[in-house]
Structures are given as C-alpha cells and as structure tokens.
C-alpha cells in the first residue's frame, strides 16, 4: 500500500513510524535510530504503554470506575520498571511516545531526574 501511494500514484504521503518498545534492541542491532529512513518514511519515537484502555476498564484511575466499585484499572509496569524502560530508550537517544489514559501516573513522570512533557 505504501509503495503504491508513494511510487505509483505519486502522492505526497510521509510516514513517521512509532516503534513498539519490545523491538528497541532489534533497532539498536540494525543501527537504526530516530530519523532513519528517507523523506517519505522515517523512524520516529519508541511507543510505550503505561496502562490499558477505558473501554475495557484497564486504564489506571486514581478513583474506582463508577460502575465497578473497587476497580481502578491496571498499570502495565510498576514505577521502577517504567523508569528503567524510559532510561533505556533515552540512552539510545530516541524520543518516547507514551500512551496513557490514566489519572494515577500524574506524579510518576518526574521520577529520578527524568522529565517527560505531558
């Protein structure tokens, strides 16, 4: 599809790929980094998930879901693990695209000298 849009139809399509965190080591092994690619297709940030989704009631909340007392959602990682993951990505000099629906993580992103723009 991308080849058809870019090369055959000559559309001005440009793609900035988000790479899922589990593939970070493969990126490093291949010498790829943010900006790797060409003017049409480039690697962007590393995508990370802090929690789940509101529809499945897995988004981490500071108060229970109104229709599910006692349910607060789920964190994908504890704070120490999340810190180490962010540190690894930043040591590779790559930006992070963090997915979070939560209200619970508000203070987490200023952990141990790491500052993330929210």
Structural description of this entry:
Pfam families: Amidohydro_3. This is Amidohydrolase 3 domain-containing protein. Residues 29-99 form the Amidohydrolase domain. The chain is an alpha/beta fold. The protein has one domain (16-113). 22% of the residues lie in helices and 16% in strands. It has helices spanning 2-8, 24-29, 79-91, and strands spanning 15-20, 41-49, 96-99. The protein has a three-stranded parallel β-sheet, covered by helices on one side. Strand 1, helix 2 and strand 2 form a beta-alpha-beta unit. The radius of gyration is 18 Å and the shape is flat. The two termini are 33 Å apart.
Mean pLDDT: 80
The radius of gyration computed from the alpha-carbon positions, rounded to a whole number of angstroms, is 18 Å
Number of helices: 3
Distance between the termini: 33 Å
Number of strands: 3
Beta-strand content bin: 15-25%
InterPro entries: Amidohydro_3
Pfam family, one: Amidohydro_3
Protein name: Amidohydrolase 3 domain-containing protein
Domain Amidohydrolase: 29-99
